[in-house]
Design goal:
single chain; alpha/beta; Rossmann fold; 6-stranded mixed sheet; globular
């Protein structure tokens, strides 16, 4: 990992590097947009015919193999899974579900003035698509993280898509009660979910991580179908003064092994800790080729002049995963997808078992939103109601605002409903 000091002669170089990392922004999709747009248009116009062709070309679908995975296949995958993994999946599912239950927003109503009430309804989306990557590693945990919050929200139809789904992925789908699962991926899967085909009816929203083709496709369909976020390569920032070098290095290597483009950063004013972590990372990544590649390309240790600067740099980066030393640090955290507190909280616990979602904002999107949650699967519908008394109280100021904007019809729609006394009072004021 590179060590960049924000003091002395290295200050300008360190801040130039920081600005480069800040500008990583959302994932750059321009290069792939022409080919992805072609795939989207083909599936949108030719439906299953195009979808099957792309699935056979890119997803390894065999000519006689069905797009849809049957419940029997998912059940068989669960039964073939070891008891230890079954127990782990059940524990993770319990925690994810419980966390989502606590996140669920409430309906409420309140009086604005006597005779006027406002409130909100909570309604689930009707259909969502959950994208589960099937490339470098099987990701049964992503089935749990995308399906269970949707279930808690009350979504009626939950569709899972995954290319070449592994046994573990199918087992997780069985555990969560998925009944609609298709062995497709890439831009073609996003197209099918967004626009629908004869086999796969369209959904209202697509969630879940994917490769750059998936991300590009989600970006291009976002005006036709809801999406959660544009997820880029994994990111980790550890901001620490008192952490243990072995544990910090282990987290950096763990997240770096996701992707050769992963970002791994340590921010500290403790120069001794910086050197110790650099040495540990080198040793721990020795046998991990993907992590070594990511750390060589985007592994940075910022050594700051003080703790205040370390905290400021952290919020500027707005990382997907952030580790801090203690609960007191939460007071200064402004921008992050998910925060891990203390030396006994490895980030991998959040990836699998704790309950908070592991589908998190990357590319500094942590400035604007948090991770996937039950809130992504519901709509908040506002409600208001007036009695004659309430309208008499709030109608006149509404009329005044409408007339100030020159919208006579708006004013008339209120005035015509006002009680006679209120109309006379308003006429006298004129």
């Amino acid at each position: 990992m590179k060590i960049a000091k924000t003091t002395g002669r290295g200050k300008a170089t360190a801040y130039a590097l920081l600005e480069t990392l800040e500008q990583r922004g959302s994932v750059s999709t321009a290069r792939l947009e022409p080919v992805v747009r072609k795939i989207l248009n083909a599936v949108r116009s030719r439906g299953d015919k195009a979808l099957l062709r792309y699935a056979q070309e890119f997803d390894g679908l065999q000519p006689q193999q069905a797009l849809r995975v049957t419940p029997a296949e998912m059940e068989a995958a669960w039964n073939a899974t070891s008891p230890a993994l079954q127990a782990a999946l059940q524990t993770a599912a319990k925690n994810v579900r419980s966390f989502a239950e606590k996140q669920k927003p409430k309906e409420w109503t309140a009086a604005v003035v006597p005779g006027a009430r406002t409130g909100q309804l909570i309604r689930p989306l009707q259909a969502v698509g959950c994208y589960v990557p099937g490339g470098r590693y099987p990701l049964p945990s992503t089935v749990l993280m995308t399906v269970l919050p949707a279930k808690v929200a009350g979504v009626e139809r939950i569709v899972v898509v995954s290319p070449r789904p592994a046994q573990e992925t199918l087992a997780a789908a069985w555990l969560t009660g998925v009944s609609e699962f298709y062995r497709i991926g890439g831009a073609q899967a996003v197209a099918a979910l967004a626009y629908g085909t004869a086999t796969i009816p369209a959904v209202d929203k697509i969630v879940g991580p994917g490769n750059l083709y998936v991300t590009t496709a989600k970006k291009l369909v976002a005006f036709d179908c809801g999406i959660d976020m544009l997820a880029g390569p994994t990111e980790i920032v550890v901001t620490s003064e008192t952490g243990k070098a072995k544990g910090i290095a282990a987290d950096l290597v763990a997240q770096a092994e996701h992707d050769p483009d992963a970002l791994a950063v340590l921010i500290t004013s403790n120069a001794q800790l910086a050197q110790a972590v650099a040495a540990e990372v080198k040793e721990q990544a020795r046998e991990n080729a993907i992590a070594r590649q990511a750390l060589a390309a985007s592994g940075v240790i910022f050594v700051t002049k003080d703790v205040t600067e370390a905290r400021a740099l952290t919020n500027r980066l707005a990382p997907e995963h952030l580790t801090v030393d203690s609960g007191a640090d939460l007071a200064w955290v402004r921008n992050a997808g998910s925060v891990f507190v203390g030396q006994h909280t490895p980030q991998s616990m959040g990836d699998y078992i704790s309950g908070p979602n592991h589908v998190l904002p990357t590319g500094r999107a942590g400035r604007m939103r948090g991770g996937l949650s039950v809130l992504d699967f519901v709509k908040v519908i506002t409600v208001q109601s007036y009695t004659q008394e309430g309208l008499a109280r709030l109608g006149p100021p509404a009329i005044a605002l409408a007339e100030a904007e020159g919208l006579k019809g708006h004013a008339a729609s209120v005035r015509i409903r006002l009680p006679r006394a209120a109309k006379k009072s308003q006429a006298r004021r004129k």
